[in-house]
Structures are given as C-alpha cells and as structure tokens.
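User: Predict the structure for this protein chain, please.
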Amino acid sequence: MKADISVVIPVYNVEKYLERCLDSVRSQTLTPREVILVDDGSTDRSGQICDRYGALCPNFQVIHQANGGLSAARNAGIERASGAYLTFLDSDDFLHPLYLEILYENAERHHGDVSVCGYAVTRKDRLPEADRQENRPEVRTSREALWECCALRKTNMTVAWCKLYRSELFRQVRYPVGRVYEDLATTHRVMALAERIVVTPLKLYGYYLSDSSITRKKYSLTNFSSENMAQDERLDFFRGLEDPELYQRLAVSVQRNRVANYCKAVRYLPEAVRERQELLRKYRALAGQVRRYPMGAADRALFWLFRLSPWLCARVFFPLYERADSMERRSRREDAS
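Assistant: Here is the predicted structure, written as structure tokens:
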C-alpha cells in the first residue's frame, strides 16, 4: 500500500550506516510517495550509495549539493517534497518496518497535524518487534505539546525526527543554516502551528549510537553559541504567545539550560571568557523574575547555588551532575548493546 508521504534523509559521510538506513525505508509496510536523499557534499562513498539506490528504487530521488550542514540539507528536502505528509530520518539511524504505517494511521484516524512515536537508543541493527496492541495514541493540543517541549529529557517532542508532519506546516518554517541544535530552534514553531498532535508510546525510530552523531562530538564554541541562540529564540517565541503560564515554564527551562551551558563552558571552553560573561548577564537579567515562577525543588536549589557562586557551581556541582549523567548514559549503552 502507498501513501502520500515524503521521506527526507540528509546524508553526509555515513557510508558505514547508509545502506541500513535506506533498507529500513524500503522495508516499510507502507510505501511512501517519495524518498528524498540529500547528499550534502559527502567526501566518502555516501553520494555513490545514494545514486545506486536512486537508480534501483523508482520512488527514490537524489539531490547532490555543496556541504551546507544538516539544516541546509533538510531545507533542500523540504523544498523538493511534494507529499501531503513529511518525515525526517537521519542517515545513521533507521526505522521499524511499521514506522510509516502506524504514524500515518494515527494521523489520519485522529486528524493529527503531527504524529509522534517513541525512539530506542541502540547499537543494534534492528528494533524489537512492535506490538500493535500497544499502539494507544494520545491526542495533544498545540499548547500541551509546547508544554512538553519545555520538559527536561522530553527529547521526542523537540527533535525533528520520530515524527510525521503535515507538509503544510513547513510552508513558512525552515531550519537555521550554519548552526547545530537546529531542532531546538525549530520544532516548537511547528508545534505551535499544529492543532492536534498524536503521540504513540511505540518505539519505532532507531537512534543509532554511532561515533559520528553531532550531539556526541566534542563540546565546542559552535555548540555553546548555537544552543544559547536557540534558547534565546525560544524565549522570544514563547513570550509572543501571550500565555503567561507557558512562558514561565519555558523561562525556567531556559535558565536551567543557561546554568548547564555556563558550567560546560567553564570546564571545556576556558578561552570563551567573553561568551560566558554574556551568558551570565542574560541569566542574571532574568533571574529575579524567574525566582517567582513555579518550579521544582531541584531547579530552585540549582538556581540558589548558581546565584551563590557560578564558579562553585561549575567546578563542584556540575562535575557531580556530569558523573551521574555519564553513568546513566553508560547504562543506556549497555542496554542497547
């Protein structure tokens, strides 16, 4: 069975994983109208692999372009897409065979503008069998989805992947070129345009733990600047929604993120003195206001410690947090292996 879906796959130097990714699309129980491969200036065999699949599969299209980054590749795919629905797949990841069928079924049955699934962090080449009986989708309003976008560790609501979108949502939305954390700067804008978001707990997207994933590369000034810029933009966007409760929740989230980024910069970017001071200025400008907002005890304690001494927070508290987080990530890798 076919459906009016465009699958956009940005590709850059992933020859080791690309065939698995593309084969997972070919194995879908619901055939998409088109699969758009955007070779973003790869210097390995990725472009050749794209061309081979393009010749082999009638619904595969290939775009070759100069390297512009993930956002530029996604945007090129959006421009080419002609399906009523649109989904993004990173080229080192892969899909469960039921991914398109279940997300499409949920969107159509519940009149969803965005259909969301869970994801599995894995080092394996396939996902566990999905039990259709566990497909119990819940419908969110736009506001409820934006509320979840502010939550800690609510990754599946902020990333571009693991979602099927009505293509019309991207008429005026594009990913910011030349930056990382492009999802963080964009997904909330799409959710704000959607009236109904359908969410299934089924893990139908395989997030592969490869060494090439952007978010696992060494922390850099680009990471620092891009994430802080995305958080500033989110703050401005939520302020413009004129929903005080939602803005307050986002402001607490942004301040939490600013503390974390300041601490990471102290530890890993000692030369970025001016950038750290600017971030600290923004944090302090909002701190008095945010202290009056509803928040959990952990956030309140974090903000108190950071106000007491940013240096102490960066040198003592944050390493403890990183150690605990590293143990959790190691546990997840062991589960995935």
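DSSP finds eleven helices and nine strands in the chain.
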